[in-house]
Every structure is written in C-alpha cells, then in structure tokens.
Design goal:
heterodimer; A: 204 residues; mainly alpha; Fumarate Reductase Cytochrome B subunit; two-stranded antiparallel sheet; 7 helices; 5% strand; globular; B: 256 residues; elongated
Chain lengths: 204, 256
C-alpha cells in the first residue's frame, strides 16, 4: 500500500479549478477571435468577446487567491529555487523522463511532503505562474480598457503591440497546458494525478 | 453679424479651391462688401458643371460618385436639394482620404462631415424636418464606442462599399447599416476595401503585399496577423505534439 500525502489544500484546489476552467475558456475563445480560425462566424463575435472577458476576470481573481495563498500559507516554499545545481537538477529530471524512466531507474527527485514538485516541474511552474500569467493578465487588462494603452510604440500602434504580446503569451500558456496535462498522466496510474488534484491526497 | 455668413478664410486658402477668386463662382456683385442679402439666392454652378466630363478630373470619378449618390438615402429622401456641398464644403474642402497618410486624420475629417449635420440639431432639422437621433445612444450596442468612432468612419458601416470607387457615396438607410462584428473583425475584413483602400492601392503600385491592414495606427481584433509568429506557433505546437506522441509510444511499449 502506497503512502498518502495531503498535497493540495482546499484553497489551492479551488484556485486550480477556476484557473483551469478559465484558461481553457480563454484559449478556445481567444483562438476563435483570431482571423485564422473563423469560429466567430458560428458562435457570434460579441458572445465570444464577452466570454473571453468574463473568463479573463475569473482567472485574475483566482490568480489573486493563488498569489496570496502562496504568501500566507507554507505552500510558497515549494516555488523557491535552489542555487545548488541550478541547471543540473532540471536536466537530470529531463533525462529521467527521456531515458531513465524507460530503463528502470528510480525518479531522481522523489516527491515527499517536503518536495511537492520535481526540479523541472518547479521551473516551468515558476515561469508560467510568475511570468507568463502576470504578463497575460496585465496585457489583457490593458486590452479590456484600451483607452489606457499608449498610442504608439516606435512605429507600431500601442494596442497592436499589447495584443501581440497577449496572444503570444497566451499561446505559450496553451503549450504549457498541453505538456502539463500529458506529464500529469505519468503517475502511479495515468489518472492518479488527476484524482489527486480533486481530492487533495497524493499517492507517493 | 451672423457668424454663419462669414467664411473661415484660413480654411479657404487650405482648401481645394484656394486658387479661385470669389467672383469666379459667385456673381460680380460679390465684389462689394457687405454683400446684398438677395445675392444669397443667385443660382450657382453645381460640382458637376465644372468637374463633370473633364479628363483632368477623371481620376476623381465625379460622374460615378453622382451615380452612387443618387442611390443613397440622402438623395432618395431629399432629392436635388441635397447637394454635394451639404457634406463637402466647396469653400474649405480638402481631399483628405486621398492625400493623407494618417488614417486617424482621414477618419476624423470624414466623420466631421457627417457630424456637422447629424450632431447639430439646427442643421439636421432644417434638412430633415425632424429631430436628430442621439448618436451615442443609438450606437450604445457598439463595444468601446469611443475607440470605434476615432478609428473607423461612419461610412464604414453606413455605405455599400463599391470597389471601383475611392470613397463609397451610396449612404444606406439606418436599417441597412452593418451590425455584424465579423464583417470587419476577420481575416477578410471589410475595412481593407474601405478605410484602408487608398493605402492598399498605393502599396499595389509598389508591388508589396496586397490588401493588408496597416499596423501603425490601430489594432483590429481578428484582422491583424503576423505571418512569422503564426508559422512559429504552428511549428512549436507540432513539435509539442510529436514529442508527446513519441513519449507515449515508449510508455506503452515499456508499460510505464
């Protein structure tokens, strides 16, 4: 019988749930606003824009919960970087995913109550949650109130630059989501990690 | 003195007819000042009297404009009384859409022509005989109304776009106005054939990419695309999928 650890407190699961729904809605509606995908012809552009705005606000509110939660609870410590082996540790984890796990090696950084994320996972989470998502939020708020955006950045319209940055970051977040969902299926069983984020209990 | 009867002389010397004396168009009695009141009633030349059938003005297509105008709601409702000068002041007119490289300036100049009546109770009622509709209320369905008003012309939605004409003059009745966002907010944006037409025509001459929406002045959700970024994102997406598929195959083989 494997050991069970209470990894994900309720506030974190609430954040994660709202964030997941919000981000998925944002990706779908965001894509359909793009000219390359003319889904807006079917659902209606106005509705898509409204859905995107609402989902954006949901993600902002849930981000505030996440951000505060990581300050006031001990959960924030899982995001602290270690200087020792700054590059070596994530590379070792990547090597495990690419090679080691198929050759009977044990995970180089097994999860425990003190280590919730492996080093590679931690780097990606920090990049997404403390860089990409804030950039998407700030540019998204700008686009929600386009009057506040400066008129010109060199020869380009300020709104254009903001929008390109917003969609580029949004795209990277979607790529993260795909990888996140796939890697989550590498567990005791493919569905184990998905159950954990719902119940809070993780099997080590 | 009635301010409506005094011309803005600064605007006059900037306008397209700056080289003319007043008496080139008006009767010689205008040489005395103050002018006699009855001179107001003198018959005047219409635009086509000078501009029609003249090869040197052919590029402006005055006859075509007249044809299109005759289909418009302005002509249908008010007939010959609705002259060109109701919108294009013969004293001060500047061909902004044709000559300006700044889209915002084109938009501002064009919209002021409409607003000079549609936002002026007295002038509107004088022609229409009823109260002017409240523009801000009527357009309240439009998100970011102010930005729309600054970045696109009224005629973008209120005319039928004719590709052969620089500026469409067939102004439609209110019920035929465009209300579908995707007409402009899509890859095949209507604005490419209307507001951005002149810039696109210039580019056509230079042999660069056709029918684009320039990136300097504005951003239109749905019609702006940066092809390089699109290619890069497709590549990243496919690489991610390939990686996942290969990894899953190994996981299945190795039963991990």
């Amino acid at each position: 019988m494997s050991e069970k650890v209470y990894f994900y407190p309720a506030w974190l699961r609430i954040w994660h749930g709202f964030n997941a729904l919000g981000i998925i809605t944002l990706i779908i509606t965001g894509l359909s606003m793009q000219s390359s995908v003319e889904a807006s012809q079917v659902i209606g552009f106005n509705l898509i824009v409204s859905l995107h705005n609402i989902a954006g606000i949901v993600v902002i509110l849930s981000y505030l919960l996440y951000f505060t939660g990581n300050i006031v609870t001990p959960n924030g410590k899982f995001y602290r970087l270690k200087r020792q082996g700054f590059f070596k540790r994530p590379v070792r984890q990547a090597m495990y995913y690419a090679w080691g796990m198929f050759h009977g090696q044990k995970s180089p950084y097994p999860l425990s109550e003190r280590r919730k994320f492996n080093p590679l996972q931690k780097y990606f989470y920090i990049l997404v949650m403390y860089f990409s998502v804030p950039v998407v939020i700030v540019t998204g708020l700008g686009l929600l109130f386009p009057e506040v955006i400066i008129d010109k950045i060199y020869m380009f319209s300020g709104v254009l630059v903001t929008a390109v940055l917003h969609s580029a970051m949004g795209f990277l977040i979607s790529i993260f989501l795909i990888i996140h969902l796939y890697v989550a299926s590498i567990g005791k069983s493919p569905l184990q990690n998905f159950k954990s984020i719902v119940t809070g209990w993780h099997h080590i | 003195m009635n301010p409506y009867y005094i011309l803005d002389t600064v605007a006059l010397v900037k306008g397209v007819h700056k080289q003319f004396d007043c008496t080139d168009c008006h009767s010689s009695e205008y040489a005395t000042y103050p002018h006699q009141a009855n001179l107001k009633l003198e018959p005047l030349n219409t635009c086509l009297d000078c501009h029609g059938g003249d090869a040197s003005f052919a590029k402006y297509q005055f006859e075509r404009i007249d044809e299109e105008f005759k289909k418009s709601v302005h002509y249908k409702v008010y007939g010959e009384n609705f002259t060109c000068s109701k919108c294009h002041s013969q004293h001060t007119y500047v061909a902004t859409a044709r000559n300006s490289s700044n889209v915002l300036e084109i938009v501002d100049y064009s919209n002021k022509m409409c607003l000079s009546c549609h936002n002026d109770m007295k002038k509107y009622e004088l022609v229409a005989g009823h109260e002017n509709p409240k523009l801000v209320q009527i357009h309240s369905w439009l998100p970011n109304q102010q930005l729309h008003f600054q970045h696109v012309r009224c005629i973008e939605c209120h005319t039928e776009v004719a590709d052969s004409l620089m500026v469409s003059h067939n102004i439609l009745s209110k019920d035929k106005a465009l209300r579908k966002c995707v007409e402009c907010h899509s890859a095949n944006s209507k604005l490419k054939a209307s507001l951005y037409k002149y810039q696109n025509l210039q580019k056509r001459g230079e042999g660069t990419e056709l029918a684009t929406v320039p990136m300097g002045e504005s951003y239109i959700i749905g019609s702006h695309q940066i092809p390089v970024l699109k290619t890069i994102s497709v590549i990243i997406f496919l690489l991610t999928l390939t990686g996942i598929v290969i990894h899953s195959i190994f996981r299945i083989i190795k039963k991990k």
